[in-house]
Structure formats: C-alpha cells, structure tokens
Amino acid sequence: MSTLPASARRYSAWSLLRARYAGPGYWRPLWSGRNLQPAYDVVIVGAGGHGLATAFHLVRDHGLRRVAVLEKRLVGYGNVGRNTTIVRSNYLLPENHYFYEDALRRWETLSRELNYNVMYSPRGVLDLALTNDDFPALARRGNALRLAGIDAELLDLPALERFAPELEPRRKRRFPIVGALLQRRGGTVRHDAVAWGYARAASALGVDIIEDCEVTGVRAAGGAATGVETTRGHVQAEQIVFATAGHTGTIGTMLETALPIETHLLQAMVSEPIKPLLNSVVVYVSPGHGETYICQSDRGGLVMGGHLDGFPSYTREGAWHRLEDVVRGALELFPRIGGVKILRHWAGTNDMTMDGSPIMDRLRYDNVFVNAGWCYGGFKAIPASGAAFAQFVATGTAPELIRPFRLSRFATGHLLDETGQGPFPVRL
Amino acid sequence: MTRLACPFCGPRELREFEFHKTGPAAGGQGEFERVYLRVADPQLSIEHWQHVGGCRAWLLVHRNPSSGLPLAVELLAGNAP
Q1: Which residue, of A242, A364, A404, B37, has the fewest CB within 10 Å?
Q2: Residue B22: its pLDDT value, please?
C-alpha cells in the first residue's frame, strides 16, 4: 500500500536505475527543513521513533493537517539510534505480548508501507536456558504465547543444534545450554532507517520536523495547556505529545508531576566486522555475569548488550564493569570470539518504570499526552506505539491495545510486572 | 563515574558497590508516593548504596546524575531520606 503523496519521489528499482544516469542532483534530502509556525493542532516533542511514527499516523490515518515534531538535537539522535535493533513479541504477560505482536506484524510490512527499506530481518530470536530452572520458565512463556496465537517454539538440544549449529549447544561449558525458546519472526531492523523512513514519510505528508528546537516549558491557561515554550519562541498547540524517551522524568518535573520513572543507562557495543558467525539473535542470562544478548549486524559486527548499569544517570557514559560483564557472558557462549576487538561502545538513557512496562496516557492536562517508560522495549514497539498513540491523540480515547499502559495502574495495583519482582526500576 | 569513595575504605572501583534505591519524592506523603513516585532532578540524586564487595557498610550517596559525579558519601545510619 502506498502512503506517500504523488509529489514525493518514490523509491523503486526504476528510481535507482534513473539515479544512476541522472547525476548527483537526483537525490534529495529525505525530509525538508521547514520553518516553525506559530500554531499547530498537535505538537510532538521528540523526533525519535515514537514521535515520528505518531506524527506519521496522525496525518495519514486521522487526517490532521497541522502537525509539528520538535527535536532538541537531530532526528534519530536519541535512543532510536542507540539500541541493539532487536524486534520480538515474546513477552509473558498478555497485555505486553498482544501489544508487541501488533508491533511485530507492522514491522513485517513497514518497508512497503513507508516505501523505505528498514531491513527487517526475521532471523529468529533465541532465549537460551543455561540452567534447569530457566527451561521451565521459558516453556511457560512459550505456552502463554502459543495460547495467544503468537509463534513460539521450545527447542531441546537436538532441535537447537539443527536451528543454530553455530552455538555448539552440546559444547562443554561452565553453564551448559539446556534448551531454548525460539521466536522465528523475531529478528532485527535497521534502527536508523526506521527514524529516517518515518521522518521521510511524515515530511512528505506535510509534517513540520523542526530540529535544534528544545522545548523548555508548557504554557497553560484555564486548566488546559495552550502551547510550549521553546528555544525558538512560543508555539501554540491544541494538543501536546511528549515522546522524549529517557528524559520523561524531567518532563514530569516541567509539569510539576512526579512520575513512577527513573532514568538509567543501558549499554551496547559492537565489535569489528567479522565473517558470518551467528544467524539469529541470542539472549541469555549467564549465572555470575547477568544478561547478554548478541546478534551479528549485516555489516558483520557483533552487536552486544546486557543489563542496566544499575543506578540513575543521564550521562550516556556506560560503567566499565557492566561492559566487562556483557563481554564475559559473550565469551562463555562463544569462546572463539576472544580475539575480536570492540569497535564502538555507547550507552542510552532509559525510562525505567516501577513495573518495567510502558506508560501511554495523559499527563496533568487533558490535552497533554505522554508516551514514555519504555524501559528496554522502546525500539521494537515503535510501529504499534505510533499507530495506537495517534488514535489516542486524535480521538481522545485510548485504543484497547494500549489501555493497560495507563498511568493510574501504579495507584490501583494493576501492574504489568513481567519479571514479577516488585516496584524497582532496576530489572534483573 | 568509575569509582566511589567509601568513608571507611577510601576510593574503590564501582563494581564493589551495589545501588539499592533512590530517595522518595519529597514531602510527607503516603505509601503509594513513597514506593512508586520519583521527582527527576537532573542535578541531584540522593541514593542508598551498599559497599557489598568491601566493608558492607550502607551508604547515603548524593550524586549529580547529569555529570555522574558523587557529591557526598556518608554512612547511612539514621540518615534514611
């Protein structure tokens, strides 16, 4: 299905061929730098995946015309460009797995929908059990998924060996592999392409994407917000959406509302490119080292991540000992990567909620919306979040899919605590 | 932040310490606010840590989460925020 207006240049094999002969002037910027207008129907704060996807759906699905996305720095500069690109829907709780399954279905067709190749690669997500206790927990999660009609397969060692021989499942290890839960449709998506693709599609539909424009306050009158203060002056808005990832706590401070959120750092790293080694996404908790997840990017680098650093921070500087933990976990699984060098290492700020699930609700005013608290799950949620949140903002009623993520659940006790560990932002 | 200065052991590697929790939102509030709500102050975070890999003392740490730098580290005893 085409979503771009006729005026936008469509990408195709034909357009590539034409570009070959048209000379350097053929390619245009993916999104156009427009001027900030004094008033909008909807102002979205944050040009990351969630903000841009919400803008795209507001215009395409709900016919809004005057929509702006304001960004403090650059499009895709925040967490949409800092994650480990994994998409999956294998959550235990129904509220979570139905939502993330909606996202996964949208990932499957997103390239066509945006006319932009986001490189969705359904290479399979493997959750490994390294202890006899892990395996029944994976079986339980898999059964919950299958009851909901979501693909999940429990693999014993022979089955795992067939699916991923590169893991050498029978290899002697300090903590040998017991089995795995496989979601075949899970995999990776090129993260930058998601930001660029949504920005291009939204811009073509007339959304103003304003970079280098920081929102510093909300102006209100008569019990409703009337606009935002920015570093480029006041902007009137009928409705305001905050999609500011790891900085939602400070948005709460701006609106004088305490939120059940702390900002923590999550690290990721990528190795130098090596020949194809790993054909799926592997996630496991190594006793002693904590969580490690690994996949191999299309360029050949091993992309790795693990647990949170474990204390609140906005620095985007990962703690050294956590990097060591992740690498040690990776080495236990793949001793042969011992000589491979880490090429880059970075950290992103995560909104950690007190139950580990997101918040999609109004905040303080009826016309202020907050799309936040994504913990580790923000990237894989983008297409579902954009569509559902746009419906919420446009109609004023939250769709069924995101109603469990309301802010009041912390007060009423309807928590979505995937790991069942209580009100702590650091999820182990 | 790569090290934290324990008042008993001196500056030690961060790995030796375990973060426990941040102080609750200010004001005399109920259980819900105390358990769930946080006031995000980018300049100051008041936290409980434990020197688990050392003297095992419970510590009250004032830190700037924007720079990552600890502002003050003292024994927690009787000082719970």
Answers
A1: A364
A2: 87
